[in-house]
Write a structure and sequence with these properties.
This protein is of the alpha+beta class and about 290 residues long. It is about 25% helix and about 35% strand.
Amino acid sequence: MEKLRLRRSARKDSMRIEELVYDYYYQLVPVVDGFSKEEELVCKKIVDQDGKIIAGCGGNAYGWGGFYVDDMWVDEKYRRQELGSHALQAVEKAAEDRGCHIIFLGTWDFQARPFYEKHGYQVFSTIKDCPKGHTDYSLFKLVDKNAPKRPQKPIEFQILDGNEEDEDYICEQLDEGYNKQHLDLKHDYIKINRKLVDEKGEAVAAIMAGVNEFDVGRIWKIWVDEEYRHQGLGSLLIRHFEKKAKEKGATKIVFEEVYDWNVGFFLKNGYNVAGELKDLPKGHSFFVVEKDIG
């Protein structure tokens, strides 16, 4: 095998790697009719009489007919007034109308697991000490137009469609407000994106990863060019990332987007399955994997 060099990845490299990963995935399992390879944002916001956002829920529809709820937030002054239920059900209705067959999401032990379970969601993944002292849950709900909806009281506020700016605001309020009260933020996110390049400087393998603000290592994407597969390059990148992540203080690594066609690679590298979501994509399985490195 030719001599390859390990290099840091720039933002443009990461964008290209993500594109290559999904191109490969969609070769294995084509996009569902009527869907797109690109994520489709859905955001619902609830505003007061002055037009200020007081609650909201947002997420994305994906090419295989799945919908991921990224975040949901209610202003502290308006909690326990059914605003969360209205925002969530508005997003669920949009996902249903879009043709999605499954909705999934993540929540911590101090957040909203009981709330989601009241709305028909079931836990499929549990990761303890993610971050230390807390448990990370993933839940799902099958979209069924005939399923009974959780009754909710009327609200006096408007529910409107939101845009990317609104979604960013909702996410910021959740992270900087509610989450920050419960999480010990150690530092800013630390990127550990790396690529292996050939003698011409062309990337032949890469990993997009880092250590988040509370010392959990996260893998986002890993890719190896078809010509270079089955030569240990993916494992080399994983080991390098684990070493760097541990040096930065991480005690656990999590990857939340593994499928039945590549889960064996992670098992071989010492990862454990924290949860399996069947039929995403249909006929296949989606996995969450974890590994303790502390």
